[in-house]
């Protein structure tokens, strides 16, 4: 044996690990599960038990069975394990690189509650008196979120953050219409660095959108708000801290100005990781707010849905909440469908129950002090990471001053020096087993990257992440072509994204893929 | 079946550069090879660009200033900056062929960047002059993209040469306010390498250097050039998007037209975005002139100050202007026809509407829009905040000040 030619994993004592992980992602060339289907293959076919088969009425019976893949249990398991190995996520990577999305840890114990047959086997059409337990979970989580936000009532029906924002603008529209001002109030004001779903939902609801630009300090210009509000103002829809991570110190004045003009103030608290137990939307005067349970309350993002959003409203807006609402009369829980001013349903049935259960379990596990500790840790982690990132030559954060729970950074300096783009830095960082993200609209910060550590990550995690970025930035200086050629240790190389932008090509389902590409 | 695809350069990226005016769809140049194919890039360097800057001369236009700069110890930097751009271009798209002029107007930079350029049969003067730039642009045939290194003055010379292909400026001048420039040489090289044929219109503006030396700052619009489109970044996104970048000139024009009131007159200032308003109305408005429209009809094109004063007299009138250059001027630069007297009439009967993309506003870095009609009283009429139309059913409320106030503060 030549002895020292390979890596010395077999020698004892085990050699110290190098500063950066020698990561290599799995590459399985795994076919789509439908392509692996063979007629007649089955997992476990459970024999008939004592429960008599229910005769379905003819009207709901399928003429032919669904075209599901037919596979043995082992191969199903292997398929999904392989896919999980070709992935980067919170469960195996340091996922601080998804600022504004917020990738925090989803405690596994909460999945046990969700997988309990009492939750997993609920049917949405069961009578109220057979689902008192889950209605109680909804009711109690609503009351807890009302306490956390200071709001009067909360709806847990929306299946995503943007659906919650849309529910809020729908309530705003219904509120003004109920006062005979629906036509007159046709403008919504937002800020450049509020999450873009605010402007998008307002536009979708038919409003004209007025945007306030940042001033020299990165704060939205309050004088511009003063000039923008008036009899046409329906609402201010604002994120705070904004996607830059900067907290608007004059937020109460913003709310007052809108109220004086007869408009409503709506707070995007999708990501409340820096705020839990520290500030409350109602205390700043807001009429509406929303949380993303998957950004703040630890539930999974679920890859585009179903996630879960929660809308909080003041007493004046409560009649407009999506329905049905869960009501408690002191002895039992029931669904109230008879609410004439409700904006209606945001999705079928109650909401995304598994995520409501997880969020409930998370809040119950932490308690009030725990929630505040979450916020304090998230802010501390963010500022620690910022301190380390800003010491990397070529990295910057546009405006001075403190940040709350995330920062939108810029590699402009590095790019001008090396010609290496921010996303190329991110792709190279994936060679070290971490995820990284640039920015969504607005594309104002040049060569952006947005990091948000939340409370989930340890100091060692943050040190490792910063060391990876420092290393890649250094590589960009020494050998830009090497960075540009990345990834080297990943499942896939460069991805051609044109299929994501072309309706003729994109295929969100096997059926669509078959129709568009295999026909 | 494999999930992988043949490796190829990432999706065309924005030049991140042209802080350009609104993008507008232009027919893609069919000759441009997609992705990684061989590109033919023209290169023109204005060797003396930028020498007046470090020497404190606020520009480099004219042989006297250039001599003075050299006497003050200035060095020629434009060639180095062009080489930097070409180096980035070749690194990112190695098959690229460079076509340029012999000597310091391109060959030296191309060779310094490791290229073996094809040379045009055109001998520039020594020292070279604006005429050499214009002649070189006219002689640049069958290239996919023309890179030029210089400043706003060079951009004007390029414009005068009527380029037959899209162009992109490598910033090397003292004054770089035009939208046809990339942010830096490396950005220009990267944008050139990623060019896939889509273009946008960018404005060429320049300062009157004589006035600038006397302390009066303000650009004038000279025309527009086609530049590689600043496409919205596609990678790193969270959701797919099939729509165009927000805030296109067409979206802005649609909103302006939707807001037009019957019987009211609209004074359209110069610029590509106001031109799009005319296009939306189906009217032959002018790029550089001031035009007046009413009820979907062109009342008068390219009017003088005196004509305008009559046209807005005694009726509801609105001024529709775009932001000229990177300093935020909306009145008093390139649209002097909207004089203090005209502005007073407009503000008494209608109002001021400013057109700009959100990107352009953001490019001001929080600084206000500027009015400088020459009459502080007239400027004060528009002072405060103004509605800036940024797209269809989209606007921003933005600060506007009198330039005198801003620069004396």
From TrEMBL, chain A:
The keyword Endoplasmic reticulum does not apply. Its EC number is 1.4.4.2. Residues 375-477 form the Glycine dehydrogenase C-terminal domain. GO terms for biological process: glycine decarboxylation via glycine cleavage system. It comes from the Bacteria. The keyword Oxidoreductase applies. GO terms for cellular component: cytosol; glycine cleavage complex. It catalyses: N(6)-[(R)-lipoyl]-L-lysyl-[glycine-cleavage complex H protein] + glycine + H(+) = N(6)-[(R)-S(8)-aminomethyldihydrolipoyl]-L-lysyl-[glycine-cleavage complex H protein] + CO2. It holds the Pfam family GcvP2_C. Residues 182-297 form the Aminotransferase class V domain. GO terms for molecular function: glycine binding; glycine dehydrogenase (decarboxylating) activity; pyridoxal phosphate binding. Keywords: Oxidoreductase, Pyridoxal phosphate. InterPro entries: Aminotrans_V_dom, GDC-P_C, GDC_P, PyrdxlP-dep_Trfase, PyrdxlP-dep_Trfase_major, PyrdxlP-dep_Trfase_small. The glycine cleavage system catalyzes the degradation of glycine. The P protein binds the alpha-amino group of glycine through its pyridoxal phosphate cofactor; CO(2) is released and the remaining methylamine moiety is then transferred to the lipoamide cofactor of the H protein. NCBIfam families: PRK04366.1. This is glycine dehydrogenase (aminomethyl-transferring). It comes from Streptosporangium canum. The lineage of its organism: Bacteria, Bacillati, Actinomycetota, Actinomycetes, Streptosporangiales.
From TrEMBL, chain B:
Keywords: Kinase, Transferase. Residues 1-33 are annotated as: Disordered. Pfam families: NAD_kinase, NAD_kinase_C. The keyword Kinase applies. One of its GO terms (biological process) is NADP+ biosynthetic process. GO terms for molecular function: ATP binding; NAD binding; NAD+ kinase activity. This is Predicted polyphosphate-or ATP-dependent NAD kinase. It comes from Streptosporangium canum.
